Amino acid sequence: MTQTPAIDLDSESVSGIRQLVGGWLWIPRLFTLILTLLTIDYLFNLQLINLITQVESQFFYTVVALMLPLVFLLWPMNRFAARNKVPWYDVLLFVASAVICSFFVFNAEQILDRGWEYDAPHYAVVMSFLLWITVLEAIRRAGGLPIATIVGVASLYPMFADMVPGPIQGFPSSPAQTAIYMAMSREGIMGIPLQAFANLVIGFLLFGVALQKTGGGKFFINLAFALLGHVRGGPAKVAVFSSGLMGSMSGSVITNVMTTGVMSIPAMRRVGFSKSYAAGVEACASTGGVLMPPVMGATAFIMAAFLNIPYGTIALAAVVPSVLYFLGLFIQIDAYAARHDLKGLPADELPSLKETLKEGWYFIFVFGLLIWMLFFLRQEATAPFYATALLLIINQVLPYERWGWQDVKDFFSESGKLFAELIAILAGVGLLVGALSVTGLSGTIANDLIYLAGGDILVLLLMGALTSFILGIGMTVTAAYIFLAVALAPALINGGGMDPLAVHLFILYWGMLSFITPPVALGAFAAATVAGAKPMETGFQAMRLGSVIYFIPFLFVLNPALIFQGSWDEIVVVIMQALAGVILIAGSIQGWLLGIGNLARGGVIQWPVRFALILGGMLLAIPGGGPVPLTNLQLSLASAALILPALALVKIIQWRQPAVSMNG
Q1: Using CA atoms, how far apart are residues 135 and 132, in angstroms rounded to an integer?
Q2: Where are the domains of the chain?
Q3: 403-415, pLDDT tens digit by residue?
Q4: What angle do CA 423, 250, 299 make, to 5 degrees?
């Protein structure tokens, strides 16, 4: 296989972003360059641009002022609007939003010193209303109508909070009080989500784009093909490996699918995987990639801000759950390939491991620097800037992927699109969080949820999983997480006595599941487009392949030892049980178990046998005690009572029917 070509990550065709031309191209580039310089000055405390960064809130307002207006240039008003030119009304909105946001930049000290968030002059109230409207339109364009509707209705709630039914009743606010609270308080638009973006996310997004534009995506795909392309079901395993690595760059399921999928899906088809199965593998791999440390996307950084813990702690906690997920995926693919006798690609069609490492070793080195600074030096804010600088320096020294002037321009263009989209979503979700805060509902909704669950923590967890999943359909993962972190997490932590980090990861995982679960499996549908498969059929394949992810969040929320919260002896036991359980479940779903062989013999009798192994695997993986009414020993005995007879029956069937075809 020849070296894979660089893949264009321009998402205009996928996300409907407007194709800017001429002088308009320079506005996102220039604004992104200014934001990058301001962020470096602020985070490294250089004090070279004191005009803006002398007040923290002034810096946050500046971030919004630079990125929010770009939404009106980059996203058309609707899907029927022109995609190749900027109409006059969008120019007007761009200028108006820049003026509105600039007002808050230049009055940041006044807002702080004079307490405008409680009592602002009339002109500041007017500007607050205008910012409110601007953010709603921006989130509609960049995030879609469903999330804009949810945010819009929620942001109006404070004005009618005393008129709604009991459980969701709150303290009312006047329209003016609501507007200034949303615009000027640290609980509204400028709340934790946007603060996390300004303090942590910008650097990691820049690092991700730089990694892509220097050939990181091509390197990881080639590395995956060189290592795994020749084994049975090799291209599918390549998809899992490369998407896991790509997730550390893009933080986006759809981007992962469109990047690695264009290479892995055709390769999977060549060795015998069906269209829907190949697309399902890619969708699951790309979804898991976003949950894979060391860089897990914007949501994990916002989680760090909510919990007030280092990002490295979250990344470390996510290691075992993500390994369990990818292990389950690998086992299913291997079992499917074994049952259907699917080979790998010929060695002469694969890239050379030696050449791949020779040309891209520095990507691994840069990742090593990033991990060292995150986990050992605890420099979450500045680590990605050092890693990006090192990456660009090495890239320009080596002859393989040197940047020219056009690459620099593309780097700032791509970064600007990512920044503008996230700012619109985070500012919009800030309105939602502000509405809960100003009415006092964020403090009482947890008690209402506990009451609805009847005080049963397992029921509350199931309610949380369902709510996270539903919100994950209508919102982005980040938006759904933020809402539930405010509304649901306190109920699980305070009412259920659960570990805060485990609860927040639980919410994140269940919010991600909508990407591979019909009826709205966006990740699966994107992969189906690449494969030319039926979307709904691909969705069900992805749901089956990713089945272990549906119960992994319950494992670590019921026993946080799985995320390294507890004594080392307990951590080791829980992890080993979970690994064994996942192997049993994944293998039984596909009908092939490592060390046992084909489970799909014996006609109808295979189904109760496979069901017994799946149930036994679940009982083995589930931690006992706490909310679970059985102890670890009781669960292990019940598991053994199911697994051992089932395996014995499999061996008897295999002994009696040795010549039966493996295609069952």
Answers
A1: 5
A2: 12-188, 567-664
A3: 999 999 999 999 9
A4: 50
Rounded to whole angstroms, the Cα distance separating 300 from 306 reads: 10
CA distances (Å), origin 353, targets 6, 29, 51, 208, 391 = 18, 37, 51, 24, 21
Other Cβ atoms closer than 10 A to 382:
15
What span, in angstroms and rounded, lies between the C-alpha atoms of 601 and 610? 11
Higher pLDDT, 115 or 36: 36
Q: What is the largest CA-CA distance in the chain?
A: 87
Average pLDDT of the chain, as a whole number: 86
- Dihedral (CA of 89, 91, 92, 93) sign: positive
Q: Find the DSSP H helices in 457-534.
A: 457-474, 477-487, 489-490, 500-512, 522-531
Reported pTM: 0.86
Residues facing residue 597 across a β-bridge = 593
Q: Find out whether 308 and 544 touch, Cβ atoms under 8 Å.
A: no
Contact (Cβ atoms closer than 8 angstroms) between residue 234 and residue 381: no
Question: Tell me: the pLDDT tens digits for 217-273?
Answer: 788 888 989 999 899 988 999 888 887 777 656 667 887 788 788 888 998 998 899
Peptide bond before residue 500 is cis, with ω within 30 degrees of 0: no
Residue 56's pLDDT band (cuts 50, 70, 90): confident
Rounded to an integer, what distance in angstroms lies between the CA atom of residue 69 and that of residue 103?
13
For the residues of 202-262, what is the DSSP string, one character each? Answer: HHHHHHHHHHHHTTHHHHHHHHHHHHHTTSTTHHHHHHHHHHHHHHHHH--HHHHHHHHHH
Q: Among 528, 468, 452, which Cα is nearest to 503's? A: 468
Question: Both tokens of residue 327?
Answer: 């292990």
Q: Where are the alpha helices (DSSP H) in 559-605?
A: 568-590
CB atoms within 10 A of CB 89: 11
CB 423 within 8 A of CB 134: no
Q: For residues 291 and 300, what is the distance between their CA atoms, to the nearest angstrom? A: 9
Report the distance separating Cα 386 and Cα 369, nearest Å: 8
Which H or E element spans position 597? strand 597-598
Cα–Cα distance for residue pair 273/278, rounded to 1 Å: 6
Residue position matching structure tokens 């919990």: 307
Q: Is residue 553 within 8 Å of residue 510, measured between CB atoms?
A: yes
**Using an 8 Å Cβ cutoff, are 245 and 427 in contact?**
no
CB 227 within 8 A of CB 264: no
Q: What is the DSSP letter of 453?
A: T
C-alpha span between 212 and 282 (Å, rounded): 19
